[in-house]
From TrEMBL:
Gene name of the encoded protein: nnrD
Protein name, UniProt field: Multifunctional fusion protein
Enzyme Commission no: 2.7.8.7, 4.2.1.136
Organism: Aedoeadaptatus acetigenes
Matches recorded under SUPFAM superfamilies: 4'-phosphopantetheinyl transferase, Ribokinase-like
Reaction catalysed by this enzyme: (6S)-NADHX + ADP = AMP + phosphate + NADH + H(+); apo-[ACP] + CoA = holo-[ACP] + adenosine 3',5'-bisphosphate + H(+); (6S)-NADPHX + ADP = AMP + phosphate + NADPH + H(+)
Amino acid sequence: MIGVDLVYIPRVKEIMNRRGEDFLERVFSPEERANLNLRPETVAGRFAAKEAMAKALGVGLFKAGFKNLIVTQDARGALCGRYKNDTFDLSLSHERDYAVAVARLRESSVLSVSNEAANLLPLVDEKDHKGARGKAAIVGGSAGMFGSVDLSSSAALRAGCGLSYAYVPDAVFNDFSLRMREVIVKKQSALDDLRGVDALGIGPGMGRDRRARDVFLKVYALDLPMVVDADGLYHLAEAKAESAGPKIYTPHAGEMARLIGRDADWVNAHRDDAVDECLALYGGVVVLKGHGTIVASKDDRVVNETGNAGMATAGSGDVLTGIITAFLAQGLDCFQAARLGVYMHGLAGDFAALHKSKWGLIASDLIEYLPEAFLRLEAAREICQK
Ligand SMILES: NC(=O)C1=CN([C@@H]2O[C@H](COP(=O)(O)OP(=O)(O)OC[C@H]3O[C@@H](n4cnc5c(N)ncnc54)[C@H](O)[C@@H]3O)[C@@H](O)[C@H]2O)[C@@H](O)CC1
Ligand SMILES: Nc1ncnc2c1ncn2[C@@H]1O[C@H](COP(=O)(O)OP(=O)(O)O)[C@@H](O)[C@H]1O
Ligand SMILES: [Mg+2]
C-alpha cells in the first residue's frame, strides 16, 4: 500500500521546454494546473507523486491515467493525493537532479466512500457547546433488555450529539443509571421533559406489555422528529396511534411484515413493494433493513451500499436507531438523517469487519468504529470541496 518514485529533473525540464503547455495539459488535471508552480523540480515532484500513487494502488500509471491521480492539499495544507475515492498521504523531496515522492494509500481508503453522503455530514462550529450540538433521547429498555437502549443512546453520542438521554421504565431506573457514563438516564414517568430534546428514538428493548404500549402512544403523539424501531414498531402495528411530528420507521423484514400485514418471506421477496405499502400506510421515511437497506420517502429512494453480513448480530439495529436519532437532533431532515445514518452505520460495520472479521463483529464494535467512519467521510468531504 505504499509506492515510491524517483524522477530525473533535467529530463522533465527538457520535455517542458520541448512540449510546453501540451505536456502540462496531458499530465495535470485543470485543478492541479490552476495552482501549479512551473519550476522543473516542482513539476518533477508532482510527476513522481502520480507514479508513486499508481504504485501504491498496484495499477499502471497509464491505466490509471495521469490526470486521475491528483496531487492536492488537505484542510491543514498538507500535501495529499486522490484517485477517484481513494486518498493518499504524500511526501515529496528533491535534491540536485532528482525529485522523489512516496505515496501511502490511507488505510481507510480501502473502503471507498460516497461524496453524496460526505456532503450530508452536519457541520461542527468551533464555538459549539454541548447544548448546541443536538439533544437526543431514546425511549426504551426493560428488565433483561438494558443492552438495546444502552447501544442506542451511546451510539447517539458517538454520532455527534452533545447530549444523549435514555428514558427507561421507573422500575429499572436505578440499575440502568449505575451502568451508564456519558448518557443521562431519566425515568419514563418524566416523559414531559422530552419536549426539551431535539429528536427522539423510541422502541429498542422497550417491551410489549400494556405499560410499554401506553408509553409508546404518549411519545408517538409528540410533535418532535422521531425514529420508530423494534418494539415501537410492534406497538404501531398493534394499536391505532396518533402521530404529530416527522417520522422515520426502521423495520427489519420481520417487523415490516407485521406493519403491512404480510409475512417475512414475502417482504424478503418484494422489498420495494413492501416499502411502498409501508409508505402508503404510515408515510414518513421508511428504512427497510438488511443487505442493501432501502431508505425511502414518497419522493426519494436509495439502496445503501455500505455494510456487511457481519452486522447480522444482536443489537446492531439498536445502534442504527441511535445514529439516525443523532443526525435528526443535529438538524438533518428525515430523509437525510436516515440516508446518512444508514450509510455511516454500514461504513462503521465495514471498518469493524476489517479489524475484527465478520465473525468477530458485535454491535458495540459499530459504535467503536464510528469515529473511523467519520474521519474517512470528513477527509472525503475536504477533498471533494477543493
Ligand atoms: N441486548 C439487547 O437488549 C437486545 C435487545 N433487542 C430487543 O429485542 C426486542 C425484540 O427484537 P426482535 O428483532 O427480535 O423482534 P421481532 O420478534 O419483531 O423480530 C424477530 C423476528 O423477525 C424475523 N426477522 C428478522 N429479520 C428478518 C429477515 N431479514 N428475514 C426474515 N425474518 C426476519 C426473525 O427471524 C424473528 O422471527 C426489541 O425490543 C429489540 O430492541 C434486540 O435488539 C437485540 C439486542
Ligand atoms: N446481511 C447483512 N448485510 C448488511 N447489513 C445487515 C445484514 N444483516 C443485518 N444487517 C444490518 O444489521 C442491522 C440489524 O438490525 P435489527 O435486525 O433490528 O437488529 P437488532 O434488533 O438485534 O438490533 C440492520 O441495520 C441491518 O441492515
Ligand atoms: Mg431491531
